[in-house]
Amino acid sequence: MDAARKLKEHYTYADYCTWPEDERWELIGGLAYALATPTMAHQSALLEMARQLANFLQGKPCKVFVAPFSVRLNANEGDDTVVEPDILVVCDEKKLEDGKGVVGAPDFIVEVLSPSTAKHDLFRKFALYQDAGVREYWIADPEDKSLMAYLLRSGRYSGTMYGKNEDAVKVEVLEGCTINLSEVFQEF
What we know:
By secondary structure, the protein is of the alpha+beta class. 22% of the residues lie in helices and 29% in strands. It is built from 4 helices and 13 strands. The chain has helices at residues 13-16, 40-57, 118-132, 181-184; strands at residues 25-28, 31-34, 63-66, 70-72, 82-83, 87-90, 101-103, 108-112, 136-141, 146-153, 156-163, 169-170, 178-179. The strands form 4 sheets. The protein has a 6-stranded mixed beta sheet with strand order 3-6-8-9-10-11, sandwiched between helices. A 3-stranded mixed beta sheet has the order 5-4-7, with no helix packed on it. It has a two-stranded antiparallel ribbon with strand order 1-2.
């Protein structure tokens, strides 16, 4: 993934907005990273988790979105960090006012691992989301059929590992919401 960068030293959201819509990129600290085409296992897990979240949130004030959907994590500072999480939930409608994506940290983010983006999601984005104040961050691995759920406490993530046979994993920041991992990681 690191090899698939654009060439300029530093990009901003303004640059990002000029790129072709058929290309998917993320900006982290002004560096551009190409996003790989997801696998079938990735898309299956993403779709099922998003379905469960959307069903739970129907009629509630929080909104769920799936990639591609831009999140500007430092819009009021350098505006050089734009990510496209696989799934995100926003409960503060003011963060959606520009109509183009999220301005600020979502309440909940899920990244579904792909072999080519695992390091990016596990390390680079983990630190980024923690520093930005994303209250809950999940990393789903469709290959291992596992989930790491991180909850932000006193500015640091603490995590819990779950396997595919978990019937109900609680989304801590969405009272009453649970995700059935056996359905997320079902064989297709």
